[in-house]
Amino acid sequence: MQRTIILLAYFFICANSFAQTAASDGQYPFVNYTPKDGLISNMIKNIYQDSKGRLYFTSLHGLSVYDGSRFINYNSKNGLNYDLVNCIMEMGDDSIWVITNSTKINGLVKGKMKLLSIHDDGYIINNLCKDANGDIYAAAEEGVLVFNKEDRFIKLPFVDANGVDVSSYISFTFSVGDYLLVQRDNSMLPTQNEMLYLYNKITKKITAEIPGIYAVQVAKDGRTWLSTEKNIMAVDTAELARGKLVLQELPQQFAQLTNKGKYFIIFDNENNCWLGNQRNVLIKASPDGTITSFNEAAGLKMFFVNSIFKDREGITWIATNNTGVSKLVHTNFSHIEKPFAIVNASDISYDHESLLIYSFPTNTAVIIHNNEKKYLHVKGATPFTKLIKTPNGFFAIDRNIIYRVDQAGDILYPKAILSDSSSNIYPNLIVDKHGNVIVPGKYHLTAVINGKIISKTRIPFFADIPATDSKGNIWIATRANDLLMYKTHPEDPSNYLEQKFFFKKELAGISPRSIIIDKNDNIWIGTRNHGIHVYSIENGELIQKFVLTPAHGLSDEFTSHLTCDAENSIWASSALGLDKVTIKNGVPVVENITKQNNIYQSVFTIVSDKDNNVWGLVSNGVIMITPEKKEISNYSPTLMVSMLKAGKDTINNGTSLTHKQNNLSFNFTATSFLNEKQVLYSYRLQGGTNNQWSEPSNNTTVSFIDLPPGDYSLDIKANFPAGRYAEQSISYKFSITPAWWQTWWFKSIAGLLIIGLLIIGFRLYYRRKLEKKMAILEKQQAVEKERTRIATDMHDDLGAGLSRIKFLSETIGIKKQQHEPIEEDVNKIREYSHEMIDKMGEIVWALNEKNDSLSDLLSYTRAYTMEYLAQNGINCKTEMPDNFPSVFVSGEFRRNVFLTIKEALHNVVKHSQATEVKLTVNINHHLTIDLKDNGTGFDQNNIRSFSNGLSNMESRVKEIGGKIEIRNKQGTVVNLSIPLNA
Q1: Parent domain of 553
Q2: Would you give the distance in Å from CA 325 to the centre of its chain?
Q3: Which end of the chain is more exposed for a tag (fewer CB within 10 A), N or C?
Q4: What is d(CA 633, CA 760) in angstroms, rounded to the nearest whole number?
């Protein structure tokens, strides 16, 4: 929403005499933007425009960016380091420095606010300026700074003529050639010195200073003006280039500004100088000397102006400290409540040389001719609906009466010359080429010649208003859809009007209400509810050329009045306002004049004077449009996608999106502010299911739901009101990547995987069958191997023992026959029997599956060790964990470990002469067994030939994946280390 405030404006110098006289009562429409419209604050400090045309409003409460469609606001809650923004500067493509009232600097890059890593010493910067060389200077609380190549602000020496360091409270710097104009914030100085300094950028010294300077500004054209206690002065630019501050009077065309002391000074981008003070006075001085003054007496409601900015479209923006921002689009448009002091104006007309404004409530009229005003009073209480001035005097109408109005001094005396029946109505009257009055009605077209009713021509039906063409012919369009043309015969007053053309079927159903003939003799007919129809006569036939409706930009279907100005533009009035129609390249272009200025009220009558000023009668006065200055501008609005959202998330780089980011909302805009609500946009999405262009509208947001993966192009077109700019179009390309399970490579891999799984499945199936066969075979082989091992053990251990017993038994028999002693042999048989019984127990223990645990192995080994050593008189100590882990060990594992320990114990008893043995067991992924004696030790080099004990031990340990180590350490240590997963 935009809200209009009307600022009364006084013009001291205007384009023509009529404008000058009327403007003393003129009102200029300003469009006001406040937080209600999206602005971040009412307290706006400054305005900036970037290279793409976007506007930036700095304030005490953050930053607003306006792109013509919406305000995007930034404060400390969404990335700004401090709410009070001092100034901004564009540093690159879509990259803006945001300087806040803190020691940090923000960067706004592609719509994302972030903190810049600029090295500084904690300066608070108030203002930035860039010189012709691209060097950046800063006015800071701590002094004058320069930005160097190391991305750092460096403080410059700033010492005045008295040798005093004045590096504090610097508010503004302006670059002028090799110099800086530097101003201090006087309010912060304890002595209130109002000083202006001239600083040499090369020598880094102050070369001149002037006291008593209230404000200073440098225009783009090089002019430098400043405000003192009593005057506005100019700085001699030639002396300035030499490092001197020499003041001089303003040029003669600005002489009336000289005594405006203590006014602020602001030069806009078109070198207009704006001056003001806190007494609510605002003055604009154009470079050509034109002065426009706005003051409180005229109704100016904007206090404390902080900044004035003119954008590249020529729009003036005023930033205030309490009412937000106001925009003045057209300085050639004004509303006059009391034109030329006429109250309640009810009629307006122009007779090719004089403007006449009439008020029937006050029975007064004013005629303006050659900068002279003449006020007239109508005698009596006759309420005219229309009063005109002709070469033959004044004429008027009132419903069904035609008046001749005689003038005597300043008094008008009306006299009825035709009173028709009450069923007739005289809606309007015109003056033809010969100075005669033509009055349409319900039944007749009447010609009044020399103040007398000379001719009454019958017409088919009621006609609202006649029109004349370039040849002086009279045209009327009736409400019954008749179009008639009459040729005038001044030589034969009794037959003054001769019908030449009559068209009926060509106007079927359009219901005419107004008519005008342009300078090319095209016929423009305003209708009741079908817009404006435009025709031409070709070889006696009526040819339709154009039809204009609200779809083509017209404010309303009902066009109540038409006029043609000196430039052949057509002005159309309606209940919804005033439109201007211009033919450009053979195409009619409609410009909504009142809508552009946020005025929505009926315009009843419009006239154009000799200076091409257009006057429109409204309910509370008149509106005046002076000829617009045709300023050459190469500005072209930037059409862009300003924001992209995926769901609730803002996407900063939206060219490649994931499959989860397929619910998209695009915000787009064209950076034109002349009539931004009337810019029409259309779009199409290529790559989707519907690639048709949308209907043009002022909607700047489009959403797409559940877009499938793929490549897309969002094409956007912008059409600007009144054809002010050429149509623009952009294409925003983006892609949505598929989910990983939707990608071609995944599908390919999945296909290959399925084929591979089938192959693997078949292979596994047949391999399983083979493994089963192999398992059965291995089991059979294991059984055979175990049988072989058992047989071997029985053969080796039991067979040898039985053989010895058999040999001893035979020896006993022989000795018994020979009567030799046999007790020794009997004892040996007894020993061998016990030994065989033990070996049989060991074999049975190894074969029993119930003993296939580490706990059984160690318990059995410990019991055997202690018993065996005790039998041989050797003390035994054991050191084992209190609890054994539940680990499965095979029969082969148990047998090899046990037999290795048994062999080691045998060697201890047989060879070591030890008195004590210590058995230590540790379990940690490995089974570690240490058998240590305190005997004579072990000599590796003194092993009996053909001894198999040690080799058997190594072989047994190696079979189960372990290793054995024998070393001397105050006796002998046998160490076994065997992995438990072996």
Answers
A1: 336-625
A2: 21
A3: N
A4: 75
pLDDT at 410 over 50: yes
pLDDT of residue 469: 95
The bridge status of strand 963-968 relative to strand 926-933 is: unpaired
**pLDDT greater than 80 at residue 940:** no
Among the listed residues 947, 933, 959, the one whose alpha carbon sits nearest the alpha carbon of residue 868 = 933
Q: Which of the two residues, 12 and 531, has the higher pLDDT score? A: 531
CB 207 within 8 A of CB 199: yes
Residue 450 carries which DSSP code?
Answer: T
Among 820, 847, 874, residue at a domain's last position: 847
Contact partners, residue 167, CB within 8 Å, separation at least 6: 142, 143, 144, 155, 157, 158
Angle at 368 between CA 363 and CA 372, to 5 degrees: 120
Return the CATH number at 242: 2.130.10.10
Assess whether pLDDT exceeds 90 at residue 724.
Answer: no
Number of folded domains that form the chain = 5
Q: Kindly give the pairing relationship between strand 71-74 and strand 85-92.
A: unpaired
Location of structure tokens 């410990």: 862
Long-range contacts of 691-698 (CB under 8 A, 24+ apart): 693/717
- For the stretch 116-148, pLDDT in tens is 988 777 899 999 999 999 999 999 999 999 998
Is residue 309 assigned to a domain?
A: no
Report the pLDDT averaged over residues 563-589: 93
C-alpha 940/C-alpha 950 separation (Å) is 10
Interval 469-488: pLDDT, tens: 999 999 999 999 999 999 99
Q: Buried b / exposed e across 403-423, counting CB within 10 Å, b at 16+?
A: bbbeeeeeebebeeebebeee
Joined tokens for residue 409: 């001094």
